[in-house]
Fold this protein.
Amino acid sequence: MPTDPVCGMHVDERTSSLLLVRDNRTYYFCSQACRESFTAPEVAEIRTARRLGVAVPLAAGATVLTYLAHPAVVLYIAAVLAAAVQFYSGWDFYVGTVDSIRSRIANMDVLIAVGTSAAFGYSLVALAFPGALKGGVFFDASTLIITLILTGNLLEQRTRRHAGSSLRDLDQLLPREALRVEGGSSRSVPREEIRVGDRLRVLPGGIVPADGIVLEGRSELDEALWTGESLPVPKGPGETVIAGARNGTGSLDIEARSIGPDSFVAQIAELLSDAEASRIPLRRLADRIASAFVPVVLTLAIAAALGWTLLAGASLATGVLIFVSVVIIACPCAFGIATPAAILVGTGRAAEEGILFRGGDSIERTARVNLVVSDKTGTLTSDVPSVASTWVAPGRSRSELLALSAGLEAHSEHVYARAVLEMARSEAIAPASVEDVRAVPGAGVEGTIAGRHLSLRSEGSGGPGSDSLQAARGSIDAAVARGESWSALWQDGQLVGVLSFATPLRPGSIEAVRELAELGIPLQIVTGDRAEAAAQVARTLGVSVARARASPEEKLAYLREQRASGKAVAFVGDGINDAAALAGADVGIAIGTGAEIARDSGQVLLVRPDLRGVPRAIRLSRAVVGKVRGNLTWAIGYNAVLLPIAAGALVPFLGFGVYTVLPIAGAIAMAISSTTVLLNSLSLRRVLRPRARARGFPLPGGSAPS
């Protein structure tokens, strides 16, 4: 059975007509007020403030006049003021009660409407027929209760608006129009008309309208909103761009690749929506309590009022006050919002750090993690290798080695080619003019220069002069010991030199291992790479367990082995070969820049390729679960203490006179209870603040990370 996303009360979808479909998700509401608070929170807040503005002076006047009592006309004036508060300021409670009856699910409005109506109705009868009822009138109680509850509602609405992640505003990050290039000219079209394959032009200072690939032009894009990268990112032909990024000083022509629901912005919004609507196992207790709470409270209120009146001789007026006290002091909202409030704030805070929890129980499962297993390549280390060292044959020079290698690699798409070209560029060495370049599958690349044959071969592929490698053996062995790969360059069968390649650790990897250790969680490496490479990374990180040459099946088997031993295991990966392990772990944590299948397989997505997101996700999930438990403890404790008091636990000690203050005190306590739950959840916004070094994307309407 679904729950109201605002108040957390159960709603029967079979009978409820109060629903809303947004982003392919159906939301059900227990009352029109809750639906309005969800769809237009600012409007709902203004409406509550207006009704409260009327209630405050009228309730004050009715209270003063009630206690004056003489002359009798004063009470009639108090009745008029109380009626205005009851049926204008309190009108939404009646509407909510009608909605509750229609859906056959009792909500909080029922308790408020019944309680205040009992006090107001009794007072009217007592005023009209003074001889029939004794004990005075309670216009002060009915008006002050409504005023105090409206005050609490206004505080809740403002707190909830502040707590919300405003994921619906993500759409506002994109430009309303885009420049579409057609036949050599460009024209402005609405964003909705963009189609996959369209050529779009992004002018200097403009916003990228769709995910795509750069076709022409060079510039720098500010992608900090999504990736947390503070520096502009250079972009040129072949580079990917994300919708919402701001262009720098150059002009770019891009090809639209992902639009609408397939875009990165839409995927982020969907993930956040899933997380905020998630129902972690801890919520089951709250759901069971909230679903039965209102009927139980009404039954308790009637039983207490009748019991003290019939068995203990309390007056009818006191019986009414007992009934009012019980129904007003109860607070099912605290049960209902205990879980969603914490999840709402927690997922928003996580999003600011670039951490996205998928729906379901991913938050609670992440909180239980006590072992992290990580892939190496592309996860702990960068996707882009660099030239780590060079060895040059006698009679040759380093500049010659780099120029010839760059001349060959300029025609290659291999990942090592970029490393060679980047090294040559950084040393201002122009690539040599190599002709007839062709790739040798699984071996390297070869070509000719001035009629002489060139060949750049990777390790293990042999070469035209493999025997001459003996001269470079010391350098090669040292590179292998460091976990590096290498390639050798030959010219007409003569060794020119050797290049070794290293994949550096991703920024933050060392800090991530240290932060995990502070949480009492070890990190282990399981990779398909060579043992030397795995051992080198493990030594650098201070990791004691590093398993190499592991196939996808072996990775999955290792995770199952650890889980069978009682470990709650998180696996961190980014590639296609990690999909099985991501799905097979207790929690799969996917690096956001990895393959789509990895992102689809993970329960947690790190938007930025920064391993520090792993301990932050665990720390934040533990904080969220702690807040949920704290909220539930508060809600249970509040009702366990105050409901017996409202039902008469203090009567043997203080007498029935205690009910002159209990109804109003109950209204104050009820407002404080639900507001306390929200404020406790809001404190999650401070989690990770002192440690936050790399920022994720601050959501619109929310506060940016400090």
